[in-house]
Structures are given as C-alpha cells and as structure tokens.
Amino acid sequence: MARIPDIHIIERGLVRLWPFAARRTRGNGALRAEVSIPRSSKGEFRNLCCKWFEGVLEEVANQPNSSTPAAPVLLVSEKPPPEEWYWEAVTAHVDLQSRMASIHDEGCWILCGKEQWGAVGASAAIAWRPGITSTWELIAWRNHELIGQPRQITSEAVRMMEEEHPLTFVNRDPTAGRGLIAPRTPCPVLYGIRGATSECVEKAHHWIQTRSDVEQSVRWGVHRTNQLTDDHLGVVTFGTVISCPEEVKGAHSNISVLSGGDRVDLVAFSEGGSVNRLLRMLQIGDRVAWLGLTAQDDAIHLERLTLVDQVPRVTGRPTCCNKSMRSGGAGQQLRCRRCGSTSQRVWNSQEADLSGIELVENWSQPPPSNRRHLARPLELGIPGA
User: Fold this and answer.
1) Model pTM greater than 0.90?
2) Burial 125-150 (b: 16+ CB within 10 A, else e)
C-alpha cells in the first residue's frame, strides 16, 4: 500500500477469536491498526483503502475454491467502538446481522465483497482494549515466489533464539523437540515470534535473520495480541467426580462431575497430554477444578485440570505372613490363615500417584503444540485462579 505523508501507524494488533466459531479461519483471527490521520488527509486515506481492498478481493478471488469461502472486510472507526464487540466474539457465537446493525449504528465505515462474515472479526479487533496480559507477536512474511515451498527454519535456530532472547515464549515445544513459529500451510507468513514486549520480539527477529539456516523475510511487523490471555475462558470452576473415567475412540476420555448442583461432562482429548492422563486417573469422590470451553453438546472441552482433593486409592487388604489377610465371615475380623492373627476390617490406601503427569503448581495443561493461541501457559499464571 502506498504511503500518505503525515499518516502514522501507532500500533498494529492481532486478535484471536472464539475457537468454536463455525466460520472460523485457520488462524481464527483478525488484524487491526491504530493510525493517526490529519483531517485534511481523510479523503485521500479512504481512496487508498478502497484501492488496497480491491486488490484484496482480487487476490481472494484467485484462491482455490473452499467449503468456507473467504469473506474479507475492512472496517474503519473514528472513535472507540463498544468493547462488548470484542468480548462477544472471543467467548461465543456472534450473529452477523445483529453485529452489522451495531456497526452501522456506530457510524463505522465498511468495505466488503458479496459476503460480510469478516465483519465479526474486524469489529472485534478494533473493539479490543489491550490489558496487562496482552502479548506481542512479530510476523515476518516470505518472498512471494517461495510461497508453497518448504520453509527453511531449523528447530535448533528456534531453540537458540529463545535462549538468547528469554522474554520470547511459546515459540517451540520442548516435549516434541520442534519449533512452533512457522505455519504449516502454504501461506505468505514465514514465521511469527511471540514474546512479552515489542522490543524483545523485534530483537529476536533480527537475531534469527542473521543465521544461515533460516530463510530471509521480505518484510515484518510487530503486533500487540490477545494471545495467551485466556480471554476465551471463564473463571475457574470446581466440582466433585460422580462417574468413572470413560475412554472413547481416539484415546479421548470423559468424566462426569457435580458442580453447583448440576451434572457436567468433562472431556479431555488425547492431544491434551497431561490433562488427559490426569482425568483418566480420577475416581468417584475426587474434588477437581478446571478451565475449558463449552461445546455444542454442553460438554466442557478441558484446557486445564487440577486435582483439588482426592479420595484414598485402595491398594488392598492388610497383609500378614507375606499374604493378604482373609475375612473370617460376616461381621468377623480379618484373619491370617497361617498364624491366626486378626485385624480390623480395613483396607490399605494411598494417595494417587501423579509422578508421571507434568504439573505446574498442581495444574495440568496440554503440550505447547496442542494449545490454543488464546491459552495462557501455566508458567505465566492463571488470571482469576
């Protein structure tokens, strides 16, 4: 896009949306930019936007057909839009017609093609108010001629980048030994580096671009994001387990709990790693807490799980002479069949063995490769926990 004198980009933004949205994009997000425009340049700015958006529509029209066609929208507001536009779109389904009516009521300027679905994401993006949990991502783009070819970004380069720049995070999965910064689709993005500050991701980008095992980018931009904020989740919920874990096809597991007087089904997918393993160890009577998303069938798809209070795990009857003691009959004490010693009718028990489950402050979470963009790593703390 051509530049106009005295128009300055104050801040770029990347906003991720509700993970269960029916018409979500692969990245399920929208871009925004806060710009400073002199009143005398507003007309020129609009003309520039129209010309740029025509190019976007032409590029989209040349893409292969899809079951969910792209529906780009450019939305411009000269005043802060209602913040609920963001919260509605990051936590639940948004009705398009209702949102379009709100957009027009607010006096926003909109550019779109035949479809207007992109208005939901665009309106959420410009309505987002970054808070103290917001993070940063530098997006680097590829040479257009290389799109569709394998990206050259080694796992070793990403590992060393995080060592050299410790304020960057969630850029690799140590459990799988691979980097997470490169998309797995033939798109124009070369990589995205996530971190705590705009300065740290920019320095990490310049550092990694000096390496011979990393492809050179043609341009880049730093974005403030709602990634790792947990904005899509509610508060921590507690409940008591009332059913034994059930494993279904694909190693997914589910369990029922009683919470606030209601029966709630919790689901942990096999990709959830420690979350799945912890759920499968639960027993009736255990007290648990969780964070997750409510699916269309009202089941909770878990993103975090912790065992708050547990019932004893029965390991067997008392032993004597290296053998389990046996019942002496109804109402009778236990008796050793070898020496005749007796014991009260009790069972040996112990706490659940959680040694094989990776926990952070007693909470479980999926490995980095299988977390949502919005999910906040336990190492950064759980807001509201």
Assistant:
1) no
2) bbbbeeeeebbbbbbbbbeeebeeee
